[in-house]
Amino acid sequence: MTVLDAINIVDLVRPAQRAPAKNRILETVNVLFYEDGIRNVGVDRIISASSVTKATFYKHYRAKDNLIVEYITHRHAHERAAMEALIAAAPSPERALRDFIASVIAEIDSPGFRGCPFINAAAEFPQADHPVRKIVTAHREWHIDTLAELLRGMGHPVPGDAADELLLTKDGAFAGGYAGDSIAASAALHRIANRVLAESKSA
């Protein structure tokens, strides 16, 4: 059982089944935590931006830490669902991988881009045994496994190594796209991805 299996994952409950106030709180921190940093956003600001009372907030979340865990879990569930939909819509593993790279580049170019939310969260919680770090680790393991399975479907000779390379290249593109030249970061990601995929065809 992974860390994510052991946690009460918010996205296993459809948004319509959650209390409207709880939805608003989660939607609010999904923006604020990403834009301004988890530790920089206090409970009073969350309550005000969510248009809920303090009593309502603490009814759903005993402490900010509970909300932080739910936020990063929600991020994982959302990204996983998007990836599964992308794979299901693609006619081949190669098409799925190319669509994935295109989606990463589109995210880098999107308004309000602040880099990778998982790496950002990990940087704010340096303790390896913190629940947030465990969720981030589980997310990255899922990501590598998913990429490796697609590369295996393409016949790549070393799908695990290639998946590591793609994920690390995505990390670099996210960092470079936010802190530096987004066009150069996207171009570098595209070049490396093309090389990795070409290795499958030459195997």
From TrEMBL:
Database matches in Pfam families: TetR_C_13, TetR_N
Keyword entries, A-Z: DNA-binding, Transcription, Transcription regulation
Annotated ranges, domain HTH tetR-type: 19-79
DNA-binding region in chain numbering: 42-61
GO molecular function: DNA binding
Protein name stated in the entry: Transcriptional regulator, TetR family
Organism of this sequence: Salinibacterium xinjiangense
